[in-house]
Design brief:
about 210 residues; alpha+beta; five-stranded mixed beta sheet; 6 helices; 8 strands
Protein backbone atom coordinates (compact mmCIF):
# COMPACT_ATOMS: atom_id res chain seq x y z
CA UNK A 1 0.00 0.00 0.00
CA UNK A 2 1.07 3.57 -0.61
CA UNK A 3 0.00 6.43 1.62
CA UNK A 4 -0.20 10.13 0.92
CA UNK A 5 0.28 12.61 3.74
CA UNK A 6 -0.77 16.20 2.89
CA UNK A 7 1.64 19.00 3.71
CA UNK A 8 1.48 22.75 4.32
CA UNK A 9 2.24 23.36 0.64
CA UNK A 10 -0.64 21.10 -0.40
CA UNK A 11 -3.05 23.10 1.78
CA UNK A 12 -1.84 26.41 0.34
CA UNK A 13 -2.29 25.10 -3.22
CA UNK A 14 -5.77 23.84 -2.37
CA UNK A 15 -6.64 27.30 -1.04
CA UNK A 16 -5.70 28.85 -4.39
CA UNK A 17 -1.99 29.52 -3.83
CA UNK A 18 -0.08 32.60 -2.77
CA UNK A 19 -0.26 36.21 -3.91
CA UNK A 20 2.45 38.85 -4.27
CA UNK A 21 1.59 39.99 -0.73
CA UNK A 22 2.17 36.57 0.88
CA UNK A 23 4.95 36.60 3.49
CA UNK A 24 6.50 33.15 3.16
CA UNK A 25 8.88 33.84 6.04
CA UNK A 26 5.86 34.10 8.35
CA UNK A 27 3.66 31.01 8.01
CA UNK A 28 1.99 29.68 11.15
CA UNK A 29 0.42 26.26 11.73
CA UNK A 30 -2.00 26.01 14.66
CA UNK A 31 -2.83 22.49 15.84
CA UNK A 32 -5.12 21.13 18.54
CA UNK A 33 -3.14 19.32 21.19
CA UNK A 34 -4.44 15.96 22.40
CA UNK A 35 -6.11 16.04 25.80
CA UNK A 36 -3.73 13.29 26.89
CA UNK A 37 -0.89 15.75 26.22
CA UNK A 38 -2.50 18.59 28.13
CA UNK A 39 -4.95 19.94 25.56
CA UNK A 40 -4.86 23.47 24.23
CA UNK A 41 -3.15 24.40 20.97
CA UNK A 42 0.34 24.00 19.52
CA UNK A 43 1.82 26.80 17.38
CA UNK A 44 4.55 26.27 14.79
CA UNK A 45 6.09 29.27 13.01
CA UNK A 46 7.63 28.36 9.64
CA UNK A 47 9.98 30.30 7.38
CA UNK A 48 9.84 28.92 3.83
CA UNK A 49 12.05 31.49 2.12
CA UNK A 50 15.25 29.45 2.50
CA UNK A 51 13.45 26.21 1.58
CA UNK A 52 12.18 27.72 -1.67
CA UNK A 53 15.58 29.20 -2.46
CA UNK A 54 17.48 25.93 -1.93
CA UNK A 55 14.79 23.48 -3.03
CA UNK A 56 15.24 21.50 0.21
CA UNK A 57 11.74 21.60 1.70
CA UNK A 58 12.59 20.62 5.26
CA UNK A 59 9.90 22.83 6.82
CA UNK A 60 7.05 21.62 4.61
CA UNK A 61 5.53 19.58 7.43
CA UNK A 62 2.65 17.15 7.36
CA UNK A 63 -0.74 18.58 8.32
CA UNK A 64 -3.70 16.97 10.09
CA UNK A 65 -7.47 17.44 10.25
CA UNK A 66 -8.48 20.72 11.95
CA UNK A 67 -5.03 22.31 11.50
CA UNK A 68 -5.20 26.05 10.80
CA UNK A 69 -2.61 27.65 8.51
CA UNK A 70 -2.02 31.40 8.53
CA UNK A 71 0.17 33.13 5.93
CA UNK A 72 1.50 36.55 6.90
CA UNK A 73 1.16 39.64 4.74
CA UNK A 74 4.10 41.61 3.34
CA UNK A 75 4.28 45.37 3.69
CA UNK A 76 5.58 45.58 0.13
CA UNK A 77 4.46 43.13 -2.61
CA UNK A 78 6.94 40.66 -4.10
CA UNK A 79 8.39 41.69 -7.43
CA UNK A 80 7.25 39.65 -10.44
CA UNK A 81 10.42 37.51 -10.59
CA UNK A 82 10.30 36.56 -6.90
CA UNK A 83 6.59 35.81 -7.13
CA UNK A 84 7.13 33.66 -10.23
CA UNK A 85 9.78 31.57 -8.45
CA UNK A 86 7.73 31.10 -5.29
CA UNK A 87 4.45 30.35 -7.03
CA UNK A 88 5.97 27.46 -8.99
CA UNK A 89 5.92 25.48 -5.74
CA UNK A 90 2.91 26.94 -4.01
CA UNK A 91 0.27 27.64 -6.64
CA UNK A 92 -1.96 25.11 -8.45
CA UNK A 93 -0.67 23.60 -11.71
CA UNK A 94 -3.64 25.03 -13.63
CA UNK A 95 -5.78 28.15 -13.29
CA UNK A 96 -9.12 29.26 -14.73
CA UNK A 97 -9.21 32.68 -16.36
CA UNK A 98 -11.93 34.39 -18.40
CA UNK A 99 -11.40 36.08 -21.76
CA UNK A 100 -14.35 37.93 -23.28
CA UNK A 101 -14.99 40.50 -25.97
CA UNK A 102 -13.53 40.50 -29.47
CA UNK A 103 -11.82 37.12 -29.46
CA UNK A 104 -12.72 34.08 -31.53
CA UNK A 105 -13.43 31.72 -28.60
CA UNK A 106 -14.55 33.79 -25.58
CA UNK A 107 -15.19 32.29 -22.15
CA UNK A 108 -13.31 30.29 -19.55
CA UNK A 109 -9.74 29.29 -20.42
CA UNK A 110 -7.81 26.65 -18.48
CA UNK A 111 -4.20 27.82 -18.38
CA UNK A 112 -1.02 26.45 -16.87
CA UNK A 113 0.27 28.16 -13.75
CA UNK A 114 2.20 31.37 -14.49
CA UNK A 115 0.64 31.87 -17.90
CA UNK A 116 0.52 35.47 -19.08
CA UNK A 117 -2.21 37.76 -20.39
CA UNK A 118 -1.02 37.50 -24.01
CA UNK A 119 -1.06 33.70 -23.81
CA UNK A 120 -4.67 33.77 -22.54
CA UNK A 121 -5.72 35.93 -25.51
CA UNK A 122 -4.04 33.53 -27.92
CA UNK A 123 -5.64 30.58 -26.09
CA UNK A 124 -9.03 32.24 -26.67
CA UNK A 125 -8.36 32.11 -30.42
CA UNK A 126 -6.87 35.56 -30.85
CA UNK A 127 -8.69 38.70 -31.94
CA UNK A 128 -11.82 38.39 -34.07
CA UNK A 129 -11.98 42.08 -34.98
CA UNK A 130 -9.65 43.88 -32.65
CA UNK A 131 -10.10 47.55 -31.90
CA UNK A 132 -9.42 49.39 -28.69
CA UNK A 133 -7.69 48.46 -25.47
CA UNK A 134 -7.49 45.32 -23.38
CA UNK A 135 -9.04 45.59 -19.93
CA UNK A 136 -7.49 43.42 -17.21
CA UNK A 137 -9.41 42.92 -13.94
CA UNK A 138 -8.31 41.00 -10.86
CA UNK A 139 -10.40 40.67 -7.69
CA UNK A 140 -8.09 40.22 -4.71
CA UNK A 141 -9.02 38.27 -1.59
CA UNK A 142 -8.70 41.38 0.58
CA UNK A 143 -11.46 43.14 -1.33
CA UNK A 144 -9.23 45.29 -3.51
CA UNK A 145 -9.36 45.32 -7.31
CA UNK A 146 -6.43 45.46 -9.72
CA UNK A 147 -7.84 47.00 -12.88
CA UNK A 148 -5.65 47.96 -15.84
CA UNK A 149 -6.42 49.29 -19.29
CA UNK A 150 -3.65 47.98 -21.50
CA UNK A 151 -2.45 48.27 -25.06
CA UNK A 152 -1.87 44.83 -26.53
CA UNK A 153 1.83 44.34 -27.26
CA UNK A 154 2.65 40.91 -28.76
CA UNK A 155 6.31 41.18 -27.75
CA UNK A 156 5.74 42.38 -24.18
CA UNK A 157 7.89 40.56 -21.65
CA UNK A 158 6.03 37.96 -19.59
CA UNK A 159 5.36 39.39 -16.14
CA UNK A 160 5.52 43.00 -17.33
CA UNK A 161 2.78 45.58 -16.72
CA UNK A 162 1.27 45.04 -20.19
CA UNK A 163 1.60 41.23 -20.05
CA UNK A 164 1.14 40.23 -16.39
CA UNK A 165 1.26 36.70 -15.03
CA UNK A 166 -2.28 35.51 -14.45
CA UNK A 167 -4.02 34.14 -11.37
CA UNK A 168 -7.15 32.13 -10.76
CA UNK A 169 -10.31 33.90 -11.98
CA UNK A 170 -8.59 36.85 -13.64
CA UNK A 171 -10.84 38.55 -16.20
CA UNK A 172 -9.63 39.89 -19.57
CA UNK A 173 -11.92 42.00 -21.76
CA UNK A 174 -10.75 42.61 -25.33
CA UNK A 175 -11.80 45.63 -27.38
CA UNK A 176 -14.33 48.42 -26.92
CA UNK A 177 -17.84 47.02 -26.80
CA UNK A 178 -20.75 46.25 -24.52
CA UNK A 179 -19.72 42.90 -23.09
CA UNK A 180 -22.36 40.24 -22.64
CA UNK A 181 -20.84 38.18 -19.83
CA UNK A 182 -22.55 34.82 -19.49
CA UNK A 183 -24.27 34.19 -16.15
CA UNK A 184 -22.14 31.11 -15.45
CA UNK A 185 -18.97 33.18 -15.90
CA UNK A 186 -20.26 35.78 -13.45
CA UNK A 187 -21.02 32.99 -10.97
CA UNK A 188 -17.55 31.48 -11.41
CA UNK A 189 -15.86 34.82 -10.83
CA UNK A 190 -17.93 36.00 -7.86
CA UNK A 191 -18.44 32.69 -6.02
CA UNK A 192 -15.08 32.73 -4.17
CA UNK A 193 -15.75 36.28 -3.00
CA UNK A 194 -19.31 36.10 -1.65
CA UNK A 195 -19.70 38.82 0.94
CA UNK A 196 -17.04 40.93 -0.81
CA UNK A 197 -18.31 41.23 -4.37
CA UNK A 198 -21.77 41.01 -5.84
CA UNK A 199 -22.89 40.53 -9.41
CA UNK A 200 -23.77 44.22 -9.43
CA UNK A 201 -20.28 45.28 -8.32
CA UNK A 202 -18.71 43.01 -10.96
CA UNK A 203 -20.82 44.48 -13.76
CA UNK A 204 -20.13 48.00 -12.48
CA UNK A 205 -16.35 47.32 -12.45
CA UNK A 206 -16.46 45.90 -15.98
CA UNK A 207 -18.46 48.79 -17.39
CA UNK A 208 -16.41 51.62 -15.84
Amino acid sequence: YSYYFPTVFDAIRQAGGITQNSDLSNVQVIRKNNKSNGGGRIYANLDFEEDLRTGFLSKNIRIYDSDVIKVGKLGKPLDEKSFFNASNNLNPDYINVFVNGKVNNPGKQIMSNNSSLNEAIYMAGGFSAFSGPVKFIRFNNDGSIDKRTLRFKPNSKRGSFHNPYLRERDLILVGKSKFNIASEVITDITSPFLGIFSTYSLIKTISE
